From TrEMBL:
Coiled coil: none annotated. CDD domains: PBP2_AvModA. Keywords: Metal-binding, Signal. NCBIfam families: modA. Belongs to the bacterial solute-binding protein ModA family. The keyword tRNA processing does not apply. The keyword Metal-binding applies. Residues 1-29 form the signal peptide. InterPro entries: AvModA-like_subst-bd, ModA, ModA/WtpA. This is Molybdate ABC transporter substrate-binding protein. It comes from the Bacteria.
Length: 257
């Protein structure tokens, strides 16, 4: 009997504590709709999982070309945070009154790479571009994708535009560009280093990491959009992206800061 009288109050307290915790968590946890540049797909999926575990907030992710996201945002798209593939689009959105100026920061600097799924096809200096030993090369649309613009700047600096452009297969974004190459529709192409890395190592094929001096820096900025300015989950995500855990993930995919 003595044991029973002790257990009942303890049980009631445990049930009450559990109920209070269950009531508190949903009030604290939130959800944020995030538009994410295609090149940042793999790291952001991992970061979003960590973010949910560490904060209780959920990031609903949409992936695509930064240029297309811009068009959707100015036409009332549902996004609350933009992780762009450049720094000009977030700047433009701030200037047009579509985003919170104080929230904007560079979350990563991207790395351009010339890649082929064939081992030994691309040398470590990109000389294959000069030999012309390919039928097609894939590049993301430079009007929509900053990595495509960086690729064009690289070709221009190498004086190879006239030779390469007739063989070019243009992807709508960097994800489609990667698919053109991986499927064999193009023998090689310019993609983001993050797309061909796994655990810090080249996943397959051969690649040339384009020196940063060959193109403008690929500064990727994040910004809170007007729809997310009062969302605690949006603010929490922006802070999380600046943390060591998120940056460790980015580093493993070839990004710098």
């Amino acid at each position: 009997m003595t044991t029973l009288h002790i257990a009942r109050p303890v049980l009631r307290l445990a049930v009450l504590a559990g109920a209070c915790l269950a009531a508190w968590l949903p009030a604290q946890a939130g959800e944020v709709a995030v538009a994410v540049a295609s090149n940042f797909t793999a790291p952001m999926k991992q970061i979003a999982q960590d973010f949910a575990k560490d904060t209780g907030h959920t990031a609903q992710l949409s992936f695509g070309a930064t240029g297309k996201f811009y068009a959707q945002i100015i036409n009332g798209g549902p996004f609350e945070v933009l992780l762009a593939a450049d720094d000009t689009t977030p700047e433009k959105l701030v200037g047009e009154g579509q985003a919170v100026a104080a929230s904007r920061f560079t979350y990563a600097i991207g790395q351009l790479v010339l890649w082929s799924p064939q081992v030994g096809y691309v040398d470590d200096k990109g000389a294959v571009l000069k030999t012309g030993d390919f039928k097609h090369i894939s590049i993301a649309n430079p009007k929509l994708a900053p990595y495509g613009l960086a690729a064009m700047q690289t070709l221009d600096k190498m004086n190879l535009m006239a030779r390469v452009v007739p063989r070019m297969v243009t992807g709508e974004n960097i994800a489609q560009t990667y698919q053109f190459i991986a499927s064999g529709n193009a023998q090689l192409g310019f993609v983001a280093l993050s797309q061909v890395l796994e655990n810090g190592k080249l996943r397959a094929g051969s690649a040339w990491q384009v020196p940063a001096s060959m193109h403008d820096p690929i500064r990727q900025d994040a910004v809170v959009l007007n729809k997310g300015k009062d969302n605690a989950a949006a603010a929490a995500l922006m802070q999380y992206l600046k943390g060591d855990k998120a940056r460790a993930v980015m580093t493993s995919f070839g990004y710098s800061f």
